[in-house]
Design a protein that fits this description.
8-stranded parallel beta barrel; about 30% helix; Phage tail protein; about 250 residues; alpha/beta; Spherulin4
Length: about 250
């Protein structure tokens, strides 16, 4: 089981509502059934990321417009994918992508993927988040670090992705002590390669570490060659049932 650097985070994690945050499936033209499944009533979704073409694309995509409309009608929160490229992305390009997401797909917020974690990058990320909130004052902002960043980032977003990686790493992962100062609904964990027989264990780890938004899949990254989030996990119905009923230890 994972080593925890804080017992407080685990204590708060056992009584929180867990929900699914979907990092983004393949294009709706390629995976129409999977996108349709996300709009099924009662699915315990926190949000779904729309990534048309490494962002919003160069023009409105009819298939993505249809998928986004279906999710919106079902009351599902949609986040536009924005790539920060670890701080190397030009601010103007980022803002342009954000406007396209809002104008074309009417997104409810943004996932800022490949977000830097260092303290030195914090001012530029803060600038980006402040600007996004200026153009969409109700935007839900998720910073996609993939690991624990400097704690200052927690003051600049609604949620942080503090783990994104393989099950073999997640089983022995550590939670940063500073996360105990925040409620579990501020943190997200994305884990690939989770065997069906270890779903309960994975959910317990998320709760112990104080992460209320999760996405677990049995798909793997093929040694870094495949996007494990592009297709729905083989046990989708099972994880929806477990999360939806609040199954815990």
């Amino acid at each position: 089981m994972p080593h925890l650097t804080s017992t407080t985070a685990g204590a708060t994690g056992t009584g929180v509502r867990t929900a699914l945050g979907v990092p983004g499936y393949a294009h709706p033209l390629v995976a129409p059934a999977q996108w349709a499944e996300l709009a099924r009533p009662g699915t315990p979704l926190d949000w779904v990321v729309l990534n048309v073409a490494a962002g919003p694309g160069s023009r409105p995509d009819p298939h993505c417009l249809e998928a986004a409309g279906r999710l919106r009608a079902a009351g599902v929160r949609i986040l536009g994918h924005l790539d920060l490229t670890y701080g190397a992305r030009a601010f103007g390009d980022l803002l342009s992508d954000a406007h396209r997401h809002l104008d074309w797909y009417r997104v409810d917020g943004f996932l800022l993927d490949r977000c830097p974690v260092e303290r030195t990058a914090l001012p530029e990320v803060r600038r980006a988040v402040t600007t996004l909130r200026a153009i969409s004052d109700t935007a839900h902002i998720v910073l996609g670090h993939g690991r624990h960043p400097h704690p200052g980032y927690a003051e600049n977003a609604d949620q942080l992705v503090t783990f994104a990686g393989s099950w073999s790493d997640y089983r022995w992962s550590q939670v940063a002590e500073w996360t105990a100062d925040y409620p579990p609904d501020r943190f997200c964990h994305f884990v690939h390669g989770v065997p069906r027989g270890h779903l309960d264990e994975a959910l317990r780890i998320a709760r112990w570490q104080g992460a209320a938004t999760i996405y677990f899949t049995d798909r793997t990254d093929g040694g870094g060659r495949i996007d494990p989030w592009e297709t729905m996990p083989g046990y989708w119905d099972e994880i929806v049932s477990r999360v939806g009923t609040g199954v815990s230890e």
